[in-house]
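Writing this down once: the sequence line spells out the residues, with the fold written below as integer tokens. This is how one looks:
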Amino acid sequence: WLAQFVGATVAIGLVLLILPEKAPAVHFGATTPKAGLFPALIVEIVLTFFLMLVNMASATDKRFKRADSGLAVGFVILVSGLMGNSLSGGSMNPARSLGPALFAGGSALADVWIYFVGPFLGALLAVGVYQVIRGSNDHTKDVLEEPPDEEKATLEKKQGGERKEVAPAATD
């Protein structure tokens, strides 16, 4: 978690070193609420809600194929970014917003709270809704369970035909 914040700040610092004349012209890549504070907050809540809903489904639901997870999450990020950019900047991640805001200062730094509160509330709402949608725990994946046969074959193919065993995680 901390690495994201450090990484975002270091990244914009590197951009400033490489392109010193360009970074200030684009406000250091800071996300800014273009539609006003309240609409931007609502947009960040909604975008993060859908991102977390898909993340939770792909990670915990047996009915969701593991191979499709990256595509599903990537598609949600793409659509959310396209939809949210003109209203809130489409951040969905406090770290992505804080680093540039520290360099930009001014209103970007004053409004950065939106990109902390919005994703937090969106994720919290997604957890509650997902619990209702998911229903019983019969559909919950056991993270240590064996993947379906078709996924085993794909994994073995990617690993050069060798089956690599992983030791089970220690439990308390």
About this structure: The chain has a mean pLDDT of 83.
